[in-house]
Amino acid sequence: MGNPIIDLLTNTYFLEIVVFPGLTSIAILGALLGWLERKLTARVQLRIGPQYASPAGGILQMFADIIKLLFKEVTIPEGADTFFFIMAPVTALIIGAALLGLIPFAPGIQIANIQVGLPVFLAIVTLSPTLVLLAGWSANSKFPFIGGLRALFQQTAYEIPLWLSTLGVVMVAGTLSLTGIVQYQQNSGWLIVPQLLGALLFIITSTAEMERLPFDLPEAESEIMMGWQAEYPGPLFMLVQGPAFVKLYAFSALFTTLYLGGYLGPSPIPPILWFFAKTLLVIVLIMLFRSTFPRVRLDQLLRQGWTTLLTLSIINIIIAYFLVVGFPAI
Amino acid sequence: MTDLVFLSLATVTIASSILALEARDLVYGAAALGIAFLGMAGLFFYLDAAYIGAFQIAVYIGAVVVLILFTVMLVGPQLGEPPLELKRLSLLAAILVSLLLGTAGAVSSASAFPGPDNCGSGCDLIGLSNALINQYGVQLEFLSLVLAAAVIGALTLAKTDRKTE
Q1: A135-176, pLDDT tens digit by residue?
Q2: Dihedral angle over CA of A287, A292, A297, A301, nearest 10
Q3: Where exactly are the structural domains of chain B?
Q4: Phi/psi of residue A201, each to 5°?
């Protein structure tokens, strides 16, 4: 029996939650994703992007921004509901970090290996529209409220095709556990091949859930000036921007787990590197959407969500049914 | 330790349920309702029923609380609405719903929910799904009838609102 503090600090579970794959790594990776997005968008638009904050292509730019934001004054808008105004982004950050606790990063490196990891992940995602609406409402300002309502429309409309598109994977793999889905792919190959339609639907709907271009109506800068984030001052603005990158990381990790075989890969390279290589690929793909597509209109977004995507996800379930039962002989 | 987790979850659930009923501001009430549902989900997780917990969150917070909040914000928070003049109709609805629920309860006999002793390896998710579809299909249909009645009622209310405008 040693010192209880040292026991706690060397406890694997504690280290997993606090260091990797938990909170510290999430914060650092979130900041690096912010840099990657700015650099990548700049490259697509033939600009240079962040450059001065470190020798390696301005890779420390986001950290410099975070330090700058931390020292800004906290101003709460007049007539705002202070409790919800501050609690909503904090809770959103907690939710984003909770999503990553369910992802199997490598054999054994997973904070919560539960039997029903996939529905729990998606259920945690459904908490976010409530928070965005409350954040937009609490600011007592026009644009945040419009942004909050838009976020509500969009996220509740796209949750249904998101759930249904993952249902195909569940039917084919025969399990709801994320580790189980990866193990199924070890024997039967990556699920993106039989579930291509589902993978496409998943990436479209998850882009909408993350409020990223071309579905960034809730924060459209040119229409409603960052929407529900408009009134947030310095340090709180950082808390509002943080969950966006954490969610990007979490959804890309989930896509990798569901469709790209998770941590599986030829053996000389360790599984964790395979996982991060695939996740990075998905992240770059989603970031390229941002610099490629124009923003959709609200009516287009909702019509596509409730008609096309819903129909396609039901077709995807029918495909999954035939994959499980076997195609009928003609 | 176990009692502490249970007690704190129960306290959060009960306290926020009371707050949901008593809050002056409807937005606070809805948010408290969300926290109460979250506490319920926590209890489900604590009882090793993560599947039910996940759907508790997805359906009750992801859909019901969002709809309540949305309605509150659309209509505008008003303090203390007068009670609706629908007493006879609501009595009829209450009788219908309790009849449906009662029938569902009667169809599932006393032996429908065996104690934990009978719960061997068949108590996993697959066993639950099989039981739900094969054994309790009729009850499931009754429950969905209740839901359908709620949807029809909501549509009727929405339609009468439009006529008065």
Answers
A1: 888 887 888 888 888 888 888 888 889 988 898 888 888 888
A2: -60
A3: 1-81, 85-165
A4: -60, -40
| Per-residue pLDDT at B165 | 46
Across chain A, mean pLDDT equals 84
Nearest to B51 among A116, A124, A129 (CB): A116
Q: How far apart are CA A164 and CA B41, in angstroms?
A: 22
* ipTM surpasses 0.85: no
For B62, the closest of A115, A126, A149 (CB atoms) is A126
CATH number of this structure's domain B1-81, picked from the four choices 1.25.40.10, 1.20.120.1200, 1.10.287.1700, 1.10.3720.10: 1.20.120.1200
Domain positions in chain A are 4-322
Q: How many CB atoms lie within 10 A of CB A12?
A: 9
- List the structure tokens of B55: 């759907």
**Nearest residue to B104 via CA among B72, B147, B64:** B147
Is A160 in the B-facing interface, judged by CB distances under 8 Å? no
Look at B70 and A133 and tell me if their CB atoms are within 8 Å: yes
Compute the distance between CA of residue B61 and CA of residue A131 in angstroms, rounded to an integer: 11
- B32 interface with A at CB cutoff 8 Å: no
Identify all chain B residues contacting A115, using CB atoms and an 8 Å cutoff.
50-51, 124-125
Q: Tokens standing for A261?
A: 């075989």
Chain centroid, CA A19 distance in Å: 20
Question: Cα–Cα distance between B105 and A317 in angstroms, integer?
Answer: 33
Distance from CA of A130 to the nearest CA of B (A): 6
Residue among B54, B73, B125 minimizing CB distance to A120:
B54
Question: Tokens 């009928």 — which residue?
Answer: A328
